[in-house]
């Protein structure tokens, strides 16, 4: 499954994922945004993998926020943008 979301005034966020037994699987977030430290992106992917496919945007953005290290800086996107693109990929 594939979804895209252009953040208003920001960057493009892309989600590629699968659903297995009702859970998100093989989640890969990408786009033209910036994230420091770059390895925090893998933390986001891991946090989303295994969540219920029915998770709403609040649950998804909370999982992203909790996965980020305290020093993480997101440029051109947000945990809420990731949640939107996941829901779009699932639609």
TrEMBL record:
The keyword Nucleotide-binding applies. It holds the Pfam family Lip_prot_lig_C. Residues 8-57 form the Lipoate protein ligase C-terminal domain. Pathway: Protein modification; protein lipoylation via exogenous pathway; protein N(6)-(lipoyl)lysine from lipoate: step 1/2; Protein modification; protein lipoylation via exogenous pathway; protein N(6)-(lipoyl)lysine from lipoate: step 2/2. InterPro entries: Lipoate_protein_ligase_C. Gene3D superfamilies: CO dehydrogenase flavoprotein, C-terminal domain. This is lipoate--protein ligase. It comes from Bordetella pseudohinzii.
